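Good morning N.,

You mentioned wanting to compare the apo and holo forms, so I went ahead and generated the holo version with 2'-deoxycytidine-5'-monophosphate. This is what I fed in:
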Amino acid sequence: MRLPAGTVIAVDGPAAAGKGTLARRLAAELGLPYLDTGLLYRAVGRRVLDRGIDPQDARVAEAEARALTPEDLARSDLRGSLADMAASKVAAIPAVRAALLDFQRRFGAAQGAVLDGRDIGTVVFPEARVKLFITASVAERARRRFLELTGRGVAADPAQVEAEIRDRDAQDANRPVAPTRRAPDAFEIDTTALNADETFHAALAFIRKKLRVIA
Ligand code: DC
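and this is what came out, ligand included:
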């Protein structure tokens, strides 16, 4: 598919709904750079935890966001329940979000991109040509996260995984700044009963229609 130059595709939605899998595959298919914006918040949370400080400390979290390096994004300890919660906490701090905004905008503006996160279609790129909002039931998202963790050899308790997803959903959706929201012009895909292939094809069909691309 040939896209108009500079096309930005925003992929938002709650944790473990399948955003990352979809966004990565769309980027590969469409020849666009891909940015997992959750990694930025995860890396900031990690840097704050490394200092032994509470991720809700706004002053420290902002300083760590401003000091972020590409190496921080390549760390192997950015996934798991401690990193999940720390990311969600620093992400509720307005100064942290402000510090990360320019990087995300520059990344997308350079040559177009697929970005996934919570506020890409509402705040980072409100003018994005294509916006997708990916959801799934809490039970299904918890099931997927549980399989992902155990697949990586991490011990997990299904009930606890579901409780953590609920907590993070509430924190991400109820914060005053850039909460998880479906943009009014976003196409919503509920992936509860869809596999990764079906989700990908539903997204691709929408993109074709939206951009009126035939091939
Ligand atoms: O997508 P993820 O689960 O890796 O994101 C980790 C946390 O970062 C998530 O709980 C909320 C926050 N986040 C955000 O607030 N805005 C984004 N654009 C991406 C992630």
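The longest helix spans residues 94-111.

Happy to go through it together on a call whenever suits you.

Best,
F.
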